[in-house]
Amino acid sequence: MKPNEHYLMHQITPFPRNPKLTGTWLLVAIVLGLWGTFWNNATLLGQTTLDDSANESKSNWNVPIPTLGGKQFWSDVRCYGNWKIQRNAVDGHHRLLDDRDIRRAWGSLEACNHELQQQIDSKRIKGHSGRLIILLHGLIRTHDSMNKMAAYLQENSTQPLETICFQYASSQANVGQHAHDLDQFISQLQEEVTEIYLVAHSLGNIVIRHYLQDNRDLKTNQLGDPRIKRIVMLGPPNQGSRAARLLKNSLAFRVVTGESGKQLAWDWEKLESQLATPKQEFAIIAGGDETPSFIEQKVFGGPTDYTVSVEETQLAGASDSIVLPVIHGLMMYDPEVRKATLSLLEHGYLVSPEQKKPIQ
């Protein structure tokens, strides 16, 4: 390519490989994003059945723009390598993001799958293989909260493995919908993925247990994908959450936590009946001090991470458990929590074989 041609291509490319967005470009991106959402909604409402059928594999006109936040409104439904297809929890449309969070297609699920398949066929992206750890975040968090944990596991593992952080719109739908999205996500993993391990924080564990119950094989009693080997639960509200029940009449709590928060606070008994106890090997890491304070005793009835009490994390059948002095929202960043998590995934115990504390 001649120098002047390279210059011209640089000028007409909306976002170069390493963009430095000026205020003007940022404004343009916001306007295009808002326009895209409006156009998609109009399309979804106005198209006839015939139009949908004719264009199901065609993506809407797309400008490859980076995402501009709002992760709480998106749930992953498929991944291939570091590319993801996500569904918007508000209007239901889908988008395809590449490994740099640049939107490459949007519209129907079929359209995004079509574009992703073209990328796969062209050998531009590589899928997962071997041992894969899927990490799930908690309520009103995003997959970003598990990124450092994922990096630690991958960098310190003695065996080759890959990681991916599953994103779900925790405050925008109920636990059943999150479990359905997780089912789609896992079921579409490549056959080259031979083993799956799950690490979840808080509500993410309830999503896993709902997924396992929804995918129970009545003949074999197998729960979920047979490739799932071990599960690490970080601060799981396995017996509900007293904190959620105390805050259930708060307007702010209902607005911020949405349908999932309502299920924890108001409808726990109904939700609990839809949850399975994993048959896979699983362990629990809870937060709390050996000597609980007066407030902990009065409000939570014992040691707590100030969101979930140690007692509420317990679930019979766990192969190991441990209590560490950590706060609920920060426990995934704690060095001891990370070390124990990796130990369970690799060896089947959190600290050592002699210090295992199964829950009968």
Q: How are the SSEs placed, and which strands pair?
A:
Layout: H1 3-12, H2 23-46, H3 49-54, E1 74-80, E2 83-88, E3 94-97, E4 103-107, H4 109-121, E5 130-136, H5 147-156, E6 162-166, H6 175-187, E7 193-201, H7 203-214, E8 228-234, H8 242-247, H9 251-265, H10 268-272, E9 281-287, H11 294-300, H12 310-313, E10 320-324, H13 335-347
Parallel strand pairs: 5-6, 5-7, 7-8, 8-9, 9-10
Antiparallel strand pairs: 1-2, 2-3, 3-4
Helix pairs in contact: 6-7
Protein model, in words:
This protein is of the alpha/beta class and 360 residues long. Helices cover 38% and strands 17% of the residues. Strand 3 and strand 4 form a beta hairpin. The N and C termini lie far apart (69 Å).
Tag the structure with descriptive keywords.
13 helices, 360 residues, disordered N terminus, alpha/beta, six-stranded parallel β-sheet, single chain, 10 strands
